[in-house]
């Protein structure tokens, strides 16, 4: 279904582009808007998935080093 919708949008954009410079301008604006919106969505996903501080990674590394030292001491 998404493929059909994408195909229909592509056909409509192609027909608009045949309208001359104004059509090309409209399609260009649509593409720029889509790219801008995609970057905003990616930024939002990034904010939700990547923690704001790097202290978690540092704490995990320190715990790993302590556990490694304990493991080597027990061997």
Discrete helix count: 3
Low-confidence stretches: none
- Please trace the helix and strand order, writing H or E for each element: HHH
Give the distance, in angstroms, between the N- and C-terminal Cα atoms. 60 Å
Radius of gyration over C-alpha positions, nearest whole angstrom:
25 Å
Biggest sheet statistics: none
Number of strands: 0
Mean pLDDT: 85
Summarize the structure.
The protein contains three helices and no strands. It has helices spanning 2-17, 21-49, 55-74.
Describe this protein with a few key phrases.
75 residues, single chain, mainly alpha
Structure description:
With 75 residues, the chain is an all-alpha fold. The chain has one domain. Helices cover 87% and strands 0% of the residues. It contains three helices and no strands. It has helices at 2-17, 21-49, 55-74. The longest helix is centred in the middle third of the chain and has 29 residues, at 21-49. The protein is rod-shaped and about 75 Å long.
What layout of secondary structure does this protein have?
Layout lengths: L1 H16 L3 H29 L5 H20 L1
């Amino acid at each position: 279904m998404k493929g059909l919708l994408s195909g229909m949008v592509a056909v409509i954009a192609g027909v608009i582009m045949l309208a001359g410079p104004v059509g090309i301008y409209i399609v260009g604006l649509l593409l720029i808007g889509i790219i801008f919106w995609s970057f905003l969505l990616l930024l939002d996903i990034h904010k939700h998935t990547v923690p704001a501080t790097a202290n978690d990674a540092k704490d995990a590394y320190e715990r790993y080093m302590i556990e490694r030292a304990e493991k080597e001491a027990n061997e």
